[in-house]
């Protein structure tokens, strides 16, 4: 499960990281709130087309678990923090920060995600993960240092956006059993519409030309929509703290892409910060968690195969083949193996990190 979750998390990181300098290019011709609205609308409308095509073609992924009423509070929190506030704050920060520095500062998102997962949602975080997080924070500090005790212009906006996304990631973890394409589509359409209507109504902004709208929509679809779907699949297998840690690759990809689009600034600081952040990421990637643990009885619905955690009987109305999706019950199970805080391993631990 780690390999599957790792691949999804890294794909999400690459798509989002590369989108950051392209998003900065858009800010020369529109306001921050207009850009945030178009990026998220592009993600939502693009994923709506994917959902339609998936249903028509009856692709194997069409049978993901649906949204339930109990999921709505989590969904509203995801839209508010990650869809409305986060993108707006990022656009405000990008307008005041060079693209390479802004891209690397996005590493703060992984730290915010890890700390919230550990302190609020009680995911297990050991010393290795914490030391890796400290390296990433130190790297972000080197990147932001301007020769005196002040952050670079725009850095606070980007850090605030990262905190919003850290909250969003942990709330999304509560929804990781649900169809990720549907979640990302709703988030994109609702959040994008809010930011766009605010820009048009309160700021009296005008829509840019068709080429810019199409460009923003394309960047949003890949960098926000497809990236979010991959991130939620990573959450399903790894939990919030570790998926957020692997997502730390995103700023490196953004910094590399930005150097090709914008003149290099502060290359030495970028290299020092990249080394520190790379050490932190390596510590996260090489972590192993293995101990005797118990699975208490639980019942839920999600897409699954019949592995060691899914040894249940099927009724006449349950779907054949695998993977499949249906309501099922887990009986109590106690064993030991390497695992991560996925859907079936969100248990308490007797020791602190």
TrEMBL record:
Cross-referenced Pfam families: EamA
Ranges where the record places region Disordered? 305-326
Q: Record keywords: Membrane included? A: yes
- Report the membrane topology from the UniProt record: Multi-pass membrane protein
Q: Per the database record, which ranges form the EamA domain?
A: 4-144, 153-283
This protein's source sits in the domain of life called: Bacteria
Chief site of localization: membrane
Name the residues that span the membrane: 33-53, 74-94, 100-121, 128-145, 151-171, 183-203, 209-233, 245-262, 268-285
Where, per UniProt, does this protein localize?
Cell membrane
Looking at the UniProt record for this protein, which Gene Ontology cellular component terms does it annotate, in alphabetical order?
A: plasma membrane
| Descriptive protein name | EamA family transporter
Which species is the source of this protein? Answer: Komagataeibacter sucrofermentans
**Lineage start:** Bacteria, Pseudomonadati, Pseudomonadota, Alphaproteobacteria, Acetobacterales
């Amino acid at each position: 499960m780690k390999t599957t979750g790792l691949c999804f998390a890294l794909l999400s990181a690459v798509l989002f990281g590369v989108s950051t300098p392209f998003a900065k290019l858009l800010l020369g011709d529109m306001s921050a709130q207009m850009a945030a609205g178009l990026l998220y609308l592009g993600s939502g409308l693009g994923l709506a087309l994917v959902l339609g095509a998936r249903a028509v073609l009856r692709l194997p992924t069409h049978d993901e678990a649906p949204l339930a009423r109990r999921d709505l509070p989590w969904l509203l929190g995801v839209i508010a923090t990650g869809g409305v506030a986060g993108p707006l704050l990022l656009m405000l920060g990008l307008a005041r920060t060079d693209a390479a520095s802004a891209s690397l500062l996005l590493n703060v998102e992984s730290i915010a995600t890890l700390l919230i997962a550990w302190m609020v949602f009680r995911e297990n975080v050991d010393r290795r993960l914490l030391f890796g997080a400290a390296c990433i924070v130190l790297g972000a500090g080197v990147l932001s240092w301007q020769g005196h005790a002040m952050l670079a212009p725009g850095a606070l906006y980007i850090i605030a956006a990262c905190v919003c996304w850290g909250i969003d990631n942990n709330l999304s973890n509560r929804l990781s059993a649900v169809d990720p394409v549907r979640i990302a589509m709703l988030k994109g359409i609702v959040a994008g519409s809010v930011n766009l209507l605010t820009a048009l109504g309160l700021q009296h902004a005008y829509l840019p030309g068709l080429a810019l709208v199409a460009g923003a929509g394309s960047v949003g679809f890949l960098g926000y929509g497809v990236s979010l779907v991959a991130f939620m699949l990573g959450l399903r297998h790894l939990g919030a703290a570790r998926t957020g840690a692997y997502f730390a690759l995103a700023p490196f990809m953004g910094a590399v892409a930005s150097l090709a689009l914008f003149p290099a600034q502060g290359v030495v600081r970028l290299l020092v910060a990249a080394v520190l952040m790379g050490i932190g990421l390596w510590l996260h990637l090489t972590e192993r968690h293995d101990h005797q643990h118990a699975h208490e009885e639980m019942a839920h619905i999600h897409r699954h195969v019949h592995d060691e955690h899914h040894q249940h009987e099927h009724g006449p109305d349950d779907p054949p083949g695998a993977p499949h999706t249906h309501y099922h019950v887990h009986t109590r199970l106690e064993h030991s193996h390497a695992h991560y805080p996925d859907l079936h391993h969100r248990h308490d631990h007797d020791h602190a990190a």
